[in-house]
Automatic annotation (TrEMBL):
It comes from the Bacteria. GO terms for molecular function: monooxygenase activity. This is 4-hydroxyacetophenone monooxygenase. Pfam families: Pyr_redox_2 (PF07992). Residues 7-225 form the FAD/NAD(P)-binding domain. Keywords: Monooxygenase, Oxidoreductase. SUPFAM superfamilies: FAD/NAD(P)-binding domain.
Length: 484
């Protein structure tokens, strides 16, 4: 139990924020407020409601290890089910009484005298806490491309993460910009109803088969009665996804095998449309961008009402898209599948640490933090899914649990000593140098992607295996200095 109460504000109620709060509560820390800017919990799984939205990591693994869910209707869960799971967890672990909805943090300032964080909200309210935990995610702020004429389109247009369900796509000419993880899910979902679909591809993704399956009531019964079966499914998918990381990090030979599997799959699926395979087969090093599990995207591209446009976009016009070859592609609706501002960590919040140090100034060349959790000069600030904690293949929840354990150990220590800590500058710098050294020759440095910021620095990805992160990311007071 806690010696004395530590007050904690967690920003965000997605998988990361809830993991943090559950771990803290398990350890007896109950003075927790979860600040959520939206009107419901769930983070990215609340926001991304596009048709076909689903997880591309199997649910038995893309879920908390301490909260198995025998009733998954599919191996690859659809968004509404994942959101249900999040709500179930929040109820079961008594988190809702800690959640404050409609509470957007605009500024957080460390008070050197009081040794507390002052947290200002968008509605003008503020609160003071001992510990601030940011769990705002990496993929919460939509990114729109810098294309001439962007604002001139006269029809409806929206981003995949802010899907406008009031726009009826039936029979319409729809232009989709982007072919990443989101687009490859919503393209097959909308293709049957739209009149014509133009998919604008700048760089194709590598695809491997999605071995989805329905879990029926009989499976649910077995998962419930014999938990080892669900655990086995979890373990198997941990192994499969960790093998992807093994391939990207350690094994060119395994990468080649995965590439061969992808080629066979994509060629077979594109066979119905002459020339399609040649357009969708990537030329960059496999693993450099996120590899995607999909068995319905290429068949959708092969349909007669779909054009895959590989010519670069020159301009958005009031009536559609004009490509570099001068061709007009008329559209009634444009959908931006152009991803997120992943490298702008904690933006647009203003965060001022000890002696007024501004977090975004510290990070002007790219975000960095000790195991993605602690930044020198920012006492008692901890992050979930912070810099360099993304994985090129596996389940982020596995990483979040490691960060929650770190946070729990940290807060236990703080509760016992009552002395705020900041990670030592030399420790964080050495850590960051090693991470960047490992990343510099890695597969992720071989192309451009959302893993890299404008300077080319890889700020999102962890360079090694998930298992190694979990083994290494442990709180040790010796890595920190007491802030007086
Ligand atoms: P993304 O992977 O970043 O894809 C964005 C797409 O937009 C890319 O194809 C990109 O092309 C294209 N694009 C960007 N700017 C462009 C421009 N100016 N002109 C033409 N095309 C442009 O974004 P996302 O699909 O939203 O996925 C982001 C991440 O979210 C994923 O990697 C994944 O981690 C997560 N996600 C997860 C799931 C899940 O199932 N768990 C589902 C969806 C998303 P380039 O490649 O050439 O830049």
């Amino acid at each position: 139990m806690t010696d004395r109460s530590v007050s904690i504000a967690v920003i965000g109620s997605g998988f990361g924020g809830l993991a943090a709060a559950i771990e803290l509560k398990k350890r007896g820390h109950d003075d927790i407020v979860i600040l959520e800017k939206a009107d419901g919990i769930g983070g990215t799984w609340r926001d991304n409601t596009y048709p076909g939205a689903a997880c591309d990591v199997p649910s038995p693994f893309y879920s908390y290890s301490f909260e198995p869910y025998p009733v998954w209707p599919h191996r690859f869960s659809r968004q509404p089910v994942i959101l249900d799971y999040i709500k179930h967890v929040a109820e079961k672990y008594d988190l809702m009484r800690h959640v404050r909805l409609g509470a957007e943090v605009v500024r957080a300032t460390y008070d050197d005298e009081a040794r507390t964080w002052s947290v200002e909200l968008g509605d003008g309210d503020s609160l003071v806490v001992d510990v601030l935990v940011s769990a705002v995610g990496q993929l919460s702020r939509p990114s729109y491309p810098d294309i001439p004429g962007l604002g001139t389109f006269e029809g409806p247009n929206f981003h995949s993460a802010t899907w406008d369900h009031d726009v009826d796509l039936k029979g319409k000419r729809v232009a989709v910009i982007g072919t990443g993880a989101s687009a490859i899910q919503f393209v097959p979902a909308i293709q049957p109803e739209v009149g014509h679909l133009s998919v604008f591809q700048r760089t194709p993704p590598y695809l491997i088969p999605r071995f989805d399956r329905e879990f029926r009531p009989s499976h649910h019964k077995v998962f419930e009665k014999v938990p080892a079966t669900l655990l086995a499914e979890r373990g198997a998918w941990y192994t499969v996804t960790e093998s992807l990381s093994v391939a990207w990090v350690y094994s060119k030979a395994l990468s080649k095998v995965i590439q061969a599997v992808s080629k066979r799959h994509m060629r077979k699926q594109a066979a119905g449309k002459p020339g399609l395979f040649e357009k969708i087969w990537p030329t960059y090093q496999i693993g450099c961008k996120r590899i995607l599990f999909s068995s319905d995207y290429v068949p959708a591209l092969a349909q007669p009402n779909v054009d895959l446009v590989t010519e670069g976009i020159a301009e958005i016009t009031p009536t559609g898209v004009r490509t570099a070859d001068g061709k007009e592609h008329p559209a009634d609706v444009i959908i931006w599948g152009t991803g997120f501002k992943a490298t702008e960590f904690l933006a647009p919040m203003q965060v001022a640490g000890a002696a007024g140090r501004d977090l975004h100034t510290e990070w002007k060349d790219g975000a960095h933090a000790y195991y993605g959790i602690s930044v020198p000069g920012f006492p008692n600030l901890l992050m979930m899914y912070g810099p360099n904690t993304n994985t090129g293949g596996g389940s982020i929840i596995y990483f979040l649990e490691a960060q929650a354990r770190f946070l729990g150990d940290y807060v236990d220590h703080l509760a016992a000593t009552r002395r705020p800590l900041a990670v030592r500058e030399d420790v964080e710098q050495a850590f960051d140098a090693e991470v960047q050294e490992q990343l510099s020759g890695s597969v992720w440095s071989a192309c451009s992607s959302w893993y890299r910021n404008a300077n080319g620095r890889i700020t999102t990805n962890w360079p090694l295996l998930a298992r190694q992160y979990r083994a290494q990311a442990k709180f040790d007071p010796a890595d920190y200095e007491v802030v007086s």
